[in-house]
Amino acid sequence: MPYQSLDADKLAIIVERLGRRIEERFPGSGLSAVCRELLGLAEKARDTMEVLTRPNLWLRVAAGGLVLLIVAGLAVMVYGLSTPAEAMPFPDFIQTLEAGINDVVLIGIGVFFVVSVERRLKRRRVLAAIGELRSIAHIVDIHQLTKDPGHTIHEVPDTPSSPRRTLTRNDLARYLDYCSEMLSLTGKIAALYAQRFDDDVVLGSVNDVEALTTGLSRKIWQKVMILETHRADGSPPT
Length: 238
Prior knowledge:
2 domains; elongated
């Protein structure tokens, strides 16, 4: 169903369009370069999920062969056991049973490890990609840190170390809005991985990114609301 899942292609188109909007309004800006990086991560997410949803046949064949070897070795060991001529004392029976249970448990762990190799490799790749999205979110936040709406509302004297503030009130509002859009899209790109790769660890990492981007966006919109609650001439509403 088209409206019950995220479309990676359309998401990449939205990010590309946002990048063009930023470049047209703020040519050569650092935020425009960050958006291009985000577009690369959106395209990477699309390509990565196409690969991860396909089974790794070579790895599965190798894992299946190892499991068969383990089972065959266990069968040979059981077949080679001989029945004692006399009844085994109870303490010896308990000791033998305990050793057998330990062997079965260790063999089961080995089989699980071999079977889950493919999933763990995919999980590692997805977590690395989600880590890149988390870094992008922090970079977007860095770009908006010095965008103080107070400088467009009233005169604030600068110091020699003050950042250059050349944006007008309207341009600052657009800049902050672009930052918020980028954060929202970052969370949506992360959600692509949870949508196509069912894994509790991945889902937890995606939720962390979405919580991070939501919190950063809320901080940006506090600045936008300060701009919106003042008149164009800089005076507060009566």
